[in-house]
Backbone:
């Protein structure tokens, strides 16, 4: 006798949400999706995902709800809109980068009788499409067997943090990781900008780094994007600016100075003001030059 797979609702089908919904459907789950721009959810029909007109319609009868949206306020707005369709005991997996707003989300989950799982992901569009995200997860032990099969489809591995789902443990880890992502992004961008300004062949810079202790896949990907002028967004400048702002807000609360992140945030703001907000975060490179 086989057990029916849980019904999954995915709220938000952007850079990460769309491949998440697609991979869950490919894995055999029944998946319903909603997005503020309806066409983005409807585009997943060929992958076996059913588009819903409203968040409440998407979550009705769902066993697990995933929110994959831009920030904490949008997540809260959407889950409140979904509330009429949510049954008590529904598992809510929060996948977005929400920073300190995670506490407010967890409080709403408790009030609504939902089982809250804090599970932001590390990775951008390509890892999401390949099911190779890293899932940072905090949840009570009892619910982990329910969500682990989902995480196995969308991620290469799951890192469980906190004690018995300590509220916000995963979201706070994500903020720490975003500091590192920003430093790497601006490091390669500024190095290549200076190479161009000094008349240094940028290929020599990449060659020296390649295969050595300073090398990594992220460096290679962003260097190739800048040198090839390929701005197809894996994760946009606008989203990177938002993430840096969330990090800085958290750092201010705990009295930690993040001078590099603050400078990087200004670079993303400058690149966005130059008209590059919808391009890949590597386009922060443009901030090194006048518009």
Residues:
């Amino acid at each position: 006798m086989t057990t029916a797979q849980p019904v999954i609702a995915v709220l938000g089908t952007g850079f990460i949400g769309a491949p998440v919904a697609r991979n869950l459907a490919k894995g055999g789950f029944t998946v319903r999706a909603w997005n503020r721009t309806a066409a983005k959810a409807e585009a997943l029909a060929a992958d076996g995902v059913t588009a819903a007109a409203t968040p409440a319609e998407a979550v009705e009868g769902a066993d697990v709800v995933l929110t994959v949206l831009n920030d904490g306020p949008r997540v809260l707005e959407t889950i409140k809109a979904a509330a009429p369709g949510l049954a008590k005991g529904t598992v809510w997996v929060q996948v977005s980068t929400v920073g300190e707003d995670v506490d407010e989300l967890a409080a709403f989950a408790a009030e609504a009788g939902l089982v809250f799982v804090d599970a932001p992901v590390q990775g951008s569009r390509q890892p999401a499409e390949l099911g190779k995200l890293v899932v940072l997860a905090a949840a009570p032990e009892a619910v982990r067997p329910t969500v682990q099969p989902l995480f196995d489809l969308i991620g290469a591995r799951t890192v469980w943090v906190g004690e018995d789902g300590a509220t916000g443990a995963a979201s706070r880890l994500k903020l720490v990781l975003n500091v590192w992502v920003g430093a790497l992004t601006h490091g390669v961008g500024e190095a290549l900008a200076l190479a161009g300004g000094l008349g240094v062949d940028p290929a020599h810079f990449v060659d020296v780094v390649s295969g050595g202790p300073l090398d990594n896949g992220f460096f290679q990907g962003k260097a190739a994007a800048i040198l090839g002028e390929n701005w197809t967004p894996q994760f946009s400048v606008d989203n990177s600016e938002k993430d840096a702002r969330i990090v800085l807000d958290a750092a201010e609360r705990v009295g930690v100075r993040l001078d590099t992140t603050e400078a990087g945030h200004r670079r993303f703001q400058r690149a966005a003001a130059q008209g590059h907000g919808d391009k890949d975060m590597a386009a922060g490179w443009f901030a090194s030059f006048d518009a």
User: Anything to note?
Assistant: The longest strand covers residues 155-160.
